[in-house]
Every structure is written in C-alpha cells, then in structure tokens.
Amino acid sequence: MNRQNAWRICGATRTMTFGLFAIMMSFCGDAAAQTAPSESREDQPAETVFKNIQALKGIRARDLQGAMSFIASSLNVDCDYCHRQDFSKDVTKEKLRAREMIRMVRQINEEAFHGENKVNCFTCHQGHTDPTSLAPIVPRASRKPGAEAAPAATEKPAAAPLQSVAKVLDHYVQALGGQAALDGVKSRIIRTEALNGENSESKTVLYQKAPGKVLLVWGSPSYTLWVGSNGKHAWAQDSEKSYWGLLNTPQRNSIMRDSESYAGSRIESQYSNVKVKGIEKIGEHATYVVSGTSPEGTSEDFYFDMQTGLLLRRHVEEQTIFGGFQVQADFEDYREVGGTKMPFVVRWSSPGNAWGTKVSSKVVDVQQNEPIEDAKFEGPPAKSR
Ligand code: HEC
Ligand code: HEC
After folding, report:
1. By C-alpha distance, which of 319, 287, 321 is closest to 304?
2. Ligand 2 pocket check for 321: Cβ under 6 Å
3. Could you say which DSSP state residue 353 is in?
C-alpha cells in the first residue's frame, strides 16, 4: 500500500468508530507495509512507531490517536488544519506552531503544576484557533438577578429518591420486552446507514449470534473493513488486504461493548464502581444516571428514562495524555422488532466532532433468528473477497 492509499484509508476513517479507528491508526502511521500490529508495537514509544515525533517523545504509540483527537477538538479544527497527505511531514506552519504549544503545555504542567495535567490546549483555546485574551462584556440590562444560578437548578427535577442499579436495569430489560423475549433472540442481522447530514457514505452490517459472536462489516464504496469475534478472540481485516490481525484486549472489549445488542444492560458485570449517581434531564425526560468504569479505564454514564425505562444516552470519557475526551451516543426512535425493542437511530457526538468519533446511523433493516454460520465469526474472510 503506498502513501496515497494510506491517506485514502485515513480519509475513510474520519467517520469510523473509536475502536475501529484505533486499529486503522496502526497503518496510518508508517505501518502500511507491515501486517498486524502486535500488542507490543502499540506499547512502544510513539517515536519508534511514527516517523517524525519530536514534542511527544516518550508517549506510547497507542496514545497518539487520543492526543490528536484532543488537539483537534480543542481548536475545533480537522486534522488537515495541520496535516496534508503524509502525517509525518512538516508542511504547515500550524503543525510547527502546535509542536511549540505541546512543548509549552508539557513545560507549564511540569514546572507550575508538579507534573500534573492541569493545563491543556482547551484551557486556552476553548474551541478556537486564536484564543481570546479579553474578558467579554456582559451587557448589564440582560442580566437578571440570580440568572446564573437558575439554569443549573432547572436541570434537576424535583428531588426523587434514587433507585438501586438493579432496579434501573430491571426496568430497562422490561422496557425492551423482558428477559424471556431478549433470550429468544438467538441471532440478528442489522443493516444501518449514516444519518443524513453526516457527510458519510458508510453502511454497516452487524451480525450477532448468541453467545458473544459478532461480525461488523463497515463499508464505503471504495473500502471495506471486517471486525469480528467468535466469542474468544477478535480480529480485523480490510479490503486493501493491508491489514489482517488479531485485536488486543482493549480493542476487543471496546468493539464488543459498542456492538452489544442491548447497550448498557450488562453494565453490572462489565464495569466496576457501578452506581446510580443521580437524576438528570435530557430534553423533557428525567433520567437515572448509572455510572461505571470500564476495564480500559473509560468513565461511562448511562442515562435511563425514569418513565419508560429505556436507555437514552451513553456518555464516555476517554483518557488522553492531555486530559479527558468525551464522546456521547444518543439512542432514539425505539421500535419493536419481534417482541423486543431497539433504537433505530444512534446519534454520536463529541467536541468539534473531531476525527475518531463514531458515525451517527439509522437502522434500515433488521432480521432476527435467521441462521448464521459459525464460520463467519471465526476469522477474516478469505483475502480474495
Ligand atoms: C493543531 C495541529 C494538529 C492537528 C489539528 C492534528 N495534528 Fe497530528 N500532529 C501534530 C503535530 C505537531 C505532530 C508532531 C508531534 C511531535 O512532534 O511530537 C503530529 C503528529 C501526527 C502523527 C504522527 C505522524 C508521524 O509519522 O510522525 C499522526 C499520525 C497524526 N499527527 C495524526 C493526526 C490526526 C489523525 C489528526 C486529526 C484527529 C491530527 N493529527 C490533528 C499537529 C496536529
Ligand atoms: C496558555 C494558553 C495556551 C495553551 C495552553 C495553548 N495555546 Fe495555542 N495559542 C495560544 C495563543 C494565545 C495563541 C495565539 C498566539 C498568536 O496570536 O500569535 C495560540 C496559537 C496557537 C496556534 C496557531 C493558530 C493560528 O491559526 O495561527 C496553534 C496551532 C495552537 N495554538 C495550538 C495549540 C495546541 C495544539 C495546544 C495544546 C498542545 C495549545 N495550542 C495550547 C495559547 C495557548
């Protein structure tokens, strides 16, 4: 695969999910000619995996992706604000400036904050390339007494007692159709396409088969990626035949969570520190917020509608070298399919919709309890496909 292709793939991944993106990143570096990245490759220093790392020397290769998403979202720009075709070349003055800024941030934290990550790009930039250094004037007339305090107060509905995690999840399972109905779904094939306005031609087909078998086929007209698991190991392959490999544990877990049939229903067994942390409103809906920590260290919140019991939102905070980076999914348009309910629209958002976030999609077709051969989940399809 030459550079051109590498760029094309990297272009295609603009809209790819975080988990998938992490895999792609392995050949967006100079890994093009290589095959599967081993676990150790990702743990190597970024400067040995990528070509031109100067300011970020010492971070792990796998942390580069999060760092770049963080930077782009802090300035509210796309990758091409600093990069052209080859990510390693220094062709824009913005990239050079950014390198100075990275050094500055590391130095500030080192010298003024005892090495803690207190200052990052967002501290100053707040979603602009050119930070403002002038405090804004707030016209007096528009300032009603107590105006600041008011919005926060209306966020919280009148104090209702918190439920236990078990009760909230039980309500959710009931709302989806009940455990018996859910157990009755032995396999599913879900076809989705990007929501209008997502500027993406991506389509996905998700094959699920109990217990724990998953195959996600992600495709645009020019590119296809298969990511699957037979319940034991997970693997990925793409149509450029440039990649074939087993995924490491964090990649596998994150993909398995994202392609779960009933998002959040197994939060108690999959996460630690699970608790109902409060009540918050999403639009008109009061929700119980159930929080937990994933094995990969992401902090996640699940928002369950107090009335209907359904999951309305999943909020994920990923850790980057600069600080937290938040991504959120909103689940909408629940419909009944064969006695169980599922959201037909999943809307992903993140600050500035920086690259690496997931694409919002709508379900176009669902088939349930159709036979799917086990072989489909065993490993990458033959390379000729
Ligand atoms: C504000 C500028 C800026 C933005 C926006 C930006 N980067 Fe970077 N990027 C840099 C700088 C600076 C470096 C070099 C870091 C160093 O010297 O340690 C870099 C390095 C990289 C590298 C390593 C290339 C190599 O082989 O040396 C990759 C890959 C990369 N960026 C990908 C991305 C992606 C993907 C995005 C979009 C999410 C992005 N960058 C957004 C400034 C930026
Ligand atoms: C202490 C505040 C501060 C922090 C922290 C900070 N910046 Fe800046 N940055 C500025 C200021 C102020 C400017 C504008 C300077 C000027 O006008 O010459 C700027 C300018 C820039 C520019 C040039 C913008 C342009 O269009 O010319 C880039 C790129 C940039 N910063 C990237 C970053 C990145 C990436 C980080 C985090 C690693 C970061 N900055 C952190 C204050 C900050």
Report:
1. 287
2. no
3. G
Tokens (6 digits) for 247: 């995924």
- What residues contact 150, with CB distance under 8 A and at least 6 apart? none
Query: What are the two backbone dihedrals, phi and then psi, of residue 263, each rounded to the nearest 5 degrees?
Result: -45, 130
Dist CA 95 CA 194 (whole Å):
31
Domain boundaries, the chain: 3-125
* Ligand 2 and 102: CB distance under 6 A: yes
Q: Tell me the pLDDT of the chain averaged across its residues.
A: 81
Whose C-alpha lies nearest to ligand 1, atom 6?
Answer: 79
| Ligand 1 geometric centre to CA of 319 (Å) | 17
The stretch 98-111 carries a mean pLDDT of 97
Query: And the tokens for 152?
Result: 């926060």
Q: Ligand 2 pocket, 105 CB below 6 A? A: yes
Backbone φ and ψ of 61, nearest 5°: -55, -40
Instruction: pLDDT band for 358, please (50, 70, 90 cuts).
Output: low
Can you say whether the dihedral through the CA atoms of 64, 70, 74, 78 is positive or negative? positive
- Taking the model in full, what pTM does it have? 0.78
119 lines ligand 2 (CB under 6 A): yes
* 328, 313 Cβ separation under 8 angstroms: yes
